[in-house]
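thought: fold this chain, then report.
action: predict
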Amino acid sequence: MTPKLPLPTPLSPGACIGIVGGGQLGRMLALAAAELGFQTHVFCPEETSPATQVASLSTQANYDDQPALDRFANSVDVVTYEFENIPVATVAHIETLKPVLPSAKALEVAQDRWVEKSFMRDLGLGVADFYDITSEPDLRAALDATQGEGILKTRRFGYDGKGQWRLKANTDLDAIMAELNGQPAILEALVPFEREISLLVARNPTGDTATYDALENVHKNHILHTSTLPASLTQAQASQAHAMAEKIAKALDYIGVLAIECFVTPQGLLVNEIAPRVHNSGHLTQDACHCGQFEQHIRAIAGWPLGDASAHSNAVMTNLLGEEVNDWQDWAAQEATYLHFYGKTQAKPGRKMAHVTRLTPRR
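observation:
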């Protein structure tokens, strides 16, 4: 195994940050980097993308194109990534040339639900009961253990409800297994939760952390609809959330912004999944917090002191999906309301086109 490169000393304005992935998260990272005086170089397979529209430089190439990866890495000072389904081999290759933050370790944990759940359980954190599924007998045995119900999820590459099935006593398991088509999966027991929240924590190379107040999330059709700051938590739950976020970040030796999705239950917080990147639910921090998640991530990977993660306002963020983006004039006419467009030209059903954040004073 190639030894990891030493972390850079704090980067000065004018340095170049590499971003692997060209989606809207990459776009907002590039915009935040520019405000701090950095150049950005985006690497992605797409000819046009939200991030390349605002980056200083861009490379269009597949994630397994090693000569292109070499040229990209040699043009930047540090590299980050904007989504977790990038091949680990891509990140591991770049790590031989330049520091990649967060590291491939965080990516490996987040990409496989079995590995992820096992990692959390080994840390002593609460998770739903889960079972490894590689065959129909595995699935039937797991359902027997969960009273005939559960959530079947592919171990890899699922998001926004993709690769997930809600199983009940009358579910046609033969049809589900055919749809699964041999992909490794896990079955999770149903969790009677009160609400869903996400936690955002930033950590820099010196081990300093900054934790945002928990965000309360509402999903529609498995896609995030709204996030609200602050979440409705007791003081004990809020303290548990902060401690949990910092524990996970430290265990991963994480650098950057990490998102943790949780269920709030009467027995405490249960970790649902992590995302080793800035997160959709955290978009409202751009407008409601002294230092938003995108600037915070750039500060962390550049080796800067972390910014103030506290909120100056309460906020509700709403995703605009597909044709909903056409209502932008109605949103723009409202007070204390902030629109963020992603530069996507085709408004497909369910596609994240923009988001809007409405602020209210903190009491």
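thought: worth noting. The chain has three domains: 16-100, 129-188, 195-361.
final: tokens above.
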